[in-house]
Structure formats: structure tokens, C-alpha cells
Amino acid sequence: MLLKYSCVFRLGLIALSLSPLCFAGTPETLLIGPGDTLHVQVLDTPELEQHPRVTDAGEIPLIGVGDVSVAGLTPSQAAAKIRERLISTHYMNHPGVSVTVDQYATQTVSVLGQVKAPGTYPIATPRSILSVVALAGGLTDSADYNLTIQRRDGSQQPVSYMLSNDARAAIAQSVQVYPGDTVIVPKAGIAYVLGDVNRPGGFVMQNTHSQLTCLQAVALAGGTPASAVPSHARLIRRLPQGGYQETAINFSAMQKGKKPDLVLQPDDVLYIPFSYVRNIASTSSGIVASATSAALYTVP
Asked: In the CATH scheme, what is the homologous superfamily, with its name and number, of domain 108-185?
């Protein structure tokens, strides 16, 4: 008799150990949706194993307990709900339930924005963001490294992912993309360096932080020749309400470490004059007009 109860007790422990409520792994983010095909299993009860398809109402028909609403739940949450239903209907006392997604209703992922081949690509299982971007041919030279993932049901907040220049960090911080999701790659900002520099033009803010400072931008522009007057530089910034704001910048003091380096914003124009006289003669409108035709360079 004692052996019998001992076996029952051990079997109960095994069932509880297989319950999804006892797992404390990585939180799931994929939600079950209408049209998905699920795989429902109950420990030591093969007759309850089934592969139901989620109806448009978000329910699955379950043997013994009827329809169970699972749409909007993660697989582990759906398993917990089925387990509770089996217990509340007195169908089973200690069921161990597992739920997995056999097939997603939406078998594609959309990749939009600054990728070489934007479009929709078939995926049958969750894939890393790096793999999905590779399907679209990789990023373009004008892509921002801050990517956004919109989940398929739209009920969750968009997920942000920054593609680091450090390969190890990019892999370690990678996130999963699920069938039906949309990956959006925005266009990076452009800052312009004009005037007396060795390589005037526009520079894409394509680095880990998607930004450039004045010192970095002038360095990318090849530095300033001896004829430049960096102490009388000007920063021309577009205002949100329209128009431009011009600010005097002592770039020479920045180079010497006497003034802090400034972070540029997209569409900023940093102008290094040729001489003080030519600086006076130059107008903000003329400098901005020159920026529109400036050559673009990608940050290495």
C-alpha cells in the first residue's frame, strides 16, 4: 500500500514538474493568433493529444472540456489555461500540459526601409533579426542602425534593436523575429560639412549611436587646411517650426580641448570659413543651398 501511494506521489511530482507554471525560462513574446495550428499534449494521456487550429474567434476545441480561448496568449499561458480548465471541470486532477505552435497562420515577414531588397519573405519559424535582415540583402549605405520590429498582432509595443558595430555585441543582443512581424529599417540622418575642408560633403550618421560630433564630422571631411579659419565656424540647424538657426562655433577651441565637442543633429550644416572676410560674405541660405548638392559619404 505504501509503495502504491509512493508511486502515485512521484507521478504527481513529475506531472507538476512538466507544468508550464514551473518553468522560469526566457519570457515568451510570440502570441497565438487565429489560424495558427497548435500541438496540445497532456502527460500520460495520449488520447488528449491533438493538433487544433485556432478559429477566427480565437478558440480551440479541446477534448473533454470544449472550446478554450487561447488567442493573445503565449504557448505557455495557453498550456496553463488548458490545465486549469481540465482541473476545474474535474476531468483530471494533476495534468501536465504543453502547447507548441505547429504552424503559424502568417508564414512571412516584411522587411521595409533601408535594405537592399525590401519586401516580404517566407519564414516558417522564429528567426534572429540578423538572419531576417540578411534575407533582405543587408542594410544600405544610408541605413540607420536602430531597427524597429512591429509584432504581427500590433497589440505589443514595437521592439527596438540597435545593430552594433561590434559583431559580438550584435549577436549577443539579437532579438527574435516571428512570422507575421514587420521589420523597419529607417534612413540614417545626414550631417554636412562645407567650406574650407579637404573633403566637403554630407556624411551619413551610420554608426553605433547614429550620431556624429563636430570633431568627428570634420575628421571625416579630411580636416581643415591652413587657409581655413575654424575659430569662426558656424553651425546652421533646421528649426522644427521652419527656417534655420545659425550659431557661432569656435571649432579651433574644440580641437584644442578648450570647448566641449558638440553632437550634430540630422540635416545640420557645419561651415568652416576660408577667411574672415569670406565668412562675412557668406549667408546661411547660400550655405544651406550648397548642402543640397553636396556629395554624400558613408561613415566607415
From this structure: Outer membrane lipoprotein wza domain like (3.10.560.10)
